[in-house]
Amino acid sequence: MLLEFAIENYRSIRDEQRLSLVAAPVQDLEETHVVEAPDGERVLRAAVVYGPNASGKSNLLAAAAAMRRFVLRSARRTRGDAIEEAEPFRLDAASASRPTVFEALFVASGVRYQYGFSVTRERVEAEWLYAFPKRRGRLLFARERDGDTETYEFGESLTGQKTLYRDATRPNALFLSTAVQLNSEALTPVFDWFQRTLVYADSARPRAFQSDRHTLWHCATEAGRRRVVRLLQAADVGIEDVVVDTQSMALPVPSGERDPSLPESQYTLHERTRVRFVHEGTPGAEPFEFGDESLGTRRLFGLAGRLLDVLEAGRVLIADELGSSLHPLILRAIVGLFVDPEVNPKGAQLVFATHETNLLDQDFLRRDQFWLTEKGRDGATSLTPLFDFKPRKGVEPLEKNYLKGRYGALPLTRFPRAIAGED
Predict the structure, then answer these.
(1) What number of CA atoms fall less than 13 Å from residue 40's CA on the CB side?
(2) Does residue 252 or residue 351 have the better pLDDT?
(3) Cα(43)–Cα(84) distance, rounded to whole angstroms?
């Protein structure tokens, strides 16, 4: 369960920006849209980010993916490898020399944690982890570098071979990742949250979801395939069934480039999954190839597996441009899965960016579930909760007011003048 995510000095985000899923002290749609954390915190099941193109929505969500990636991979990198996740704000000289900072507050195995780190391209500058059993903060560890000197502080509640973990941690790796690689039981729940609970999906990429392993894994069983098919049928895209099989394909490797110590089969064949769709009203007809379908159908197919995974296990899905190539009502239906306690009994969460304004509806989402991104004249992204504008409960037309510019976060278009050549 995600409570908050904060990022500083990452791409277009210069100053710290913090996205919170802690529910505001209002009772809007309380029984359906809010879930209670183990420590009693009221947490939102979904949050949506709006803003003009190039305002930083994608950077905000990509930062969560970058944090996850560094947690999972840092211990496997070799000494001297650059930390690619450090991408400082480039529009002023001061930011270029400062570290990128990531922090997340979340619940794992029934305990609230606060974990973060700051990194440059060369090394980890700081790292910290606190646990809050019964909302009482306890330090597990803190690490800080001052020039060439690095200091560690360990809390009493951190068990295991702390000295071994510390000595094995390279300058460009995280202590958390290294300790878990060395079988730290105390830190495994935190690492596992990033590995198993936090899921990122960039649906804005041109080939996103076209061969998504989550959906293919579901289609490997009859029950899973039927669930995927039912989701496609619910979206009214005309799909009656899905056919998934494996093809053996020849590899174009010249004989002179082959390693004679390897068997011939290593070069002559490889496996490729083939996905085809059976359409309604075509009994006995040859199924359509994956590439014959619309981009929206292909993306919905790829997204299906992730949706099923996240809802079944109570995970957190971070998705950029979730509604890309999808009808607004399909996007609304997808969001509706997360705010339906019967469909989502384990409290799965959805955090996403979109331009579809039909979700700005107080009968559908709460006032505290909307976030807005803008860029200032200095090129830096700011993130603001729509709730700060104090919209009136139940009566304020959020979509209309947003499109009229009452909350900001809109593009200032000048197309007619630009085309006419006016300044």
Answers:
(1) 4
(2) 351
(3) 32
